[in-house]
Amino acid sequence: MDFLDRYRDIVPDWEAFRAVQFRPLISTARINTLKIGRDVLLERLAEQGLDCRPFQWYPLGLKLDVESPGKLLETLLGFIHIQEELSMVPPLLLDPQPGERILDLCASPGSKTTQISAMMENRGLVIANEPSLARVAALRSNCERLGAMNVAITRYDGRNFPRGLFHRVLVDAPCSAEGRERRGAGVIARGSCQRSLDLQALQIGLLKSALRLTVPGGVVVYSTCTYSPEENEMVVQAALDAEESSGAHLEKVKTPGLRECPGLEEWKATIFSPQMRFAARYYPHINDTGGFFVAKIVKS
Amino acid sequence: MSPRSSRARNVFEPLDRDAVAEIWNSRFAIPESVFSGYNFFRKARSIWAISDSELPGLSYEAIGMRIMNCKDRPWKPTTCALQVFGPYAEKNTMHLQAASARLFMEGKTQEVDAVTAEQCESGYVVVFYRGDVLGCGLYSHGKLVSQIPKERRLPGKEGEDIS
Ligand SMILES: C[S@@+](CC[C@H](N)C(=O)[O-])C[C@H]1O[C@@H](n2cnc3c(N)ncnc32)[C@H](O)[C@@H]1O
Predict the structure, then answer these.
(1) Measured from the CB, is residue A114 less than 6 Å from ligand 1?
(2) Exposure letters B133-162 (e unless 16+ CB within 10 A, then b)
(3) ipTM
């Protein structure tokens, strides 16, 4: 009996979900097209006899079964970046275009910032915002190693980010990280409904701020690596409600090759908007990944 | 290059692109056109480069990549900047073989022969291996000192530098 038990009614195939928590994940990496082509990189890894398999659903993602992937020459030179498999989903949904202006509101350590920058082929501008001075160092270091040349870093509290406007905004929010249990036990032990509610206020503030900073017709992607509806559907609902006068709607999250579960239609006493099913829940036993939530909001 | 006012205020000040391009061109013979897609800024004694686009009026912690440090003479290019601009260099470049490339990536100092150092004057050089830029080295009198930052080094074997 632990904190996850409260999700028994929403997670499909509960036994498999519980069992998978004890199976560690193997490392994954993203090929950094700012510095190397995919074929050349795959050839280099194969030459060294490294066990590496591209994802089914994303040609730039790799399962990399090696001891310290962070110490590979390819990592040190910025040809690849060690990044969780599902962490590569939000930038793809955000779909940044070369030349646009993008805001990554909660950016460190910059896995998604640098993926966005690569998708933009270093053209246009990414503002990577991260209030924590300690965490800015990792963000800067990753941008530099990966050769992201169109990124500027700011340090605002995302809720009070002063001015925009941006074509697209990513809110990869601070969360209780329940979906990271397979990376190291203990995450779940620290979880609680109260903790999620405390984070919720911050998350709603961040998402509202993102919508304020987005151009009409622009896109906001909200993501967490947690199961808690308090930090997911309830946050999205609150932002949609606040946006009611100006208008914003969810667009269906569908990544070919990955299996999504729909966002919840209700939780405890709360009924969500019917469009909440367009958001996606990823459970670890379904795609053999971590756990993740993502919603794509289009501002009218 | 370093008016006291900006150093004291510690803010990003726009720099003339041609001036930066000329400095890099004189040391590395990098065509000035390589720099045309970037804007440059100075903060204290560092110079930064970012892809050309309009910057909104915000308070910035970093603007693009730190490409060089002008604190000492001669100015020093960063390893990450050489990985971007170094492939276009036509002088002060050095191509290493596997064993010396490894030592270089471990952060070690080593001796290099005259043939390897053929195109190098004393000072900072672009170090290559198999066509890729590894980073910045300091060359003088037959010796190459790796400037690879600590967190970018290959874990080394215990022991002395080969010099
Ligand atoms: C889940 S992590 C982001 C991971 C990152 N997007 C990536 O892909 O590498 C959440 C980040 O939000 C930052 N954060 C915390 N409070 C914040 C706030 N009020 N505004 C903006 N960011 C905040 C945290 O310091 C943390 O670095």
Answers:
(1) no
(2) bbbbbbbeeebbbbbbbeebbbeeeeeeee
(3) 0.94
